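=== RUN LOG ===
request id: a7f3
mode: sequence -> structure
chains: 1
length: 508
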Amino acid sequence: MHSMEELLTLAGKCHIAWLDPDEDLMPTGGYEVAHDTGRWWDAMLRLENATGFAIPAEIEAAMLRNLHRLMGNPDALLMNDPSVEWLKEKARINPHNFREGLLAVTSLVRFRDSAWARETGHRLLKTMDRCLQSDGRFDFTRLVCWGKVPHTDDPSHDQKPGKPWFDGTANSGRALEAVVWFYEATGDCLALDVAERIARHHLANTVNPDGSVRAEIVDPNNVGHNHSYLGTLRGLLLFGLLTSQSEYVEAVTATYMNSLWRHNITESGWTPHDLGKTRFPDEKGDPVGEHASCGDVAQLALWLALRAGHTELLDDVERLVRARLLPSQTVDENNPRQHGAWGVYSHPFGQGSTLDVFAAVTHSLADIYQHVVTRSAEGVVSVNLHFDIETPWATVQTRRSEKGRLIVEPKQRSEVRLRVPGWAPRETLRLEAWGNPLPLRWEGHYLIVSSRDVPAGAALELAYDLPLRETTEVMPVSRREFRLTWRGDEVAACDPEVPIYPVFVKGG
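=== RESULT ===
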């Protein structure tokens, strides 16, 4: 299996391959040009920041012109421009794109210090502020472009007045995290005000304090969208962390612990596109899957672990990356628009190439990659995840054969913390420096190595067994069963045979 950095580099190249030279280098052939443009900017600038991936200058200039054009309307909405002849019939007011527009301009503020992005983001927030009603609905008739551009006919955006409850996750809910990030990047007070109003609505209407799923969300008549629902949880968590309001953090934590793994994702990382009503079934009647939601859950687990103290959830982060996201990336050197992609997929253990999906996965993996190793203000270096990486503080290598091995070369004399997977048998642990055993001193899920215990230039090596176990995943409609054989947190085989895992050998 390739390293995470190698797969992120493939994803970056695939983002570029999706730009159409015959249509002003716009991303064509996906969900929507405008939507995909916002996702493209967010993913590529995060990727650049995480790995140093270089965006060619001519590509960046073209995509910046495209974004200016697609957000250049009086409402600063990110939408297909009806003045572009080939986009005219596809121009729609798309409430999904409150999030995508803010994601794009936030990244341009953070990584390019763009004055245009600051001003455009503020104009978009003024639009949201004007349209957002006290009951949490958007009144789109308050848009300047209302009546000039058709509104989307996607039923997940239905917010008709008079309904006692409506699913706002595909509109304001999914936008909340982008509003929070724009505030953090700019200090724009309007962003904080809009975020507070959105968060208050969804705390009351989208989640339950005890973490049980709202019955309306999974009702068979509700046109729900898993990625938008998970985006709402992400936004609620970020808002709670930003404002130190524990009720938001506690509600998301409880939802993660008590219902997410029953309704939104399986242990191996299958995530249905639909929640509630199955709009897009596969040939067996089950919802098609899509990888963005798997990345959402992994990123939620990362934040809950490192920002809310639930470090045991780093096991979930690593398992979802190892068992689903890494093996599911499409590798096809003969098709640049698939080589390095993730997407919507029909087989429960399949692959796909969908730009907005693999942009979202790139976003999540870039964040996870940047937190493999962290350093505290006091200089303590923590190895949080067992992935290869080179950082200013340590070089980390991982090996998986008969045993799991984590090799860490500190670059400075400091205390080092090594996370031990929760599933690793404690009696098999061995920690060494230059072949000499070190004592196992615990702090929660981490082994603590004092700077006094490590000779200058020495590498630390942590070894542990990779236990075998079996699980069975049952699809929600067809009741198809897939028996997975695990080795540690990786799937070693599946019965019956599936596209992304090795063939199961009976008696092997």
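=== NOTES ===
The radius of gyration is 23 Å.
The longest strand covers residues 403-410.
=== END ===
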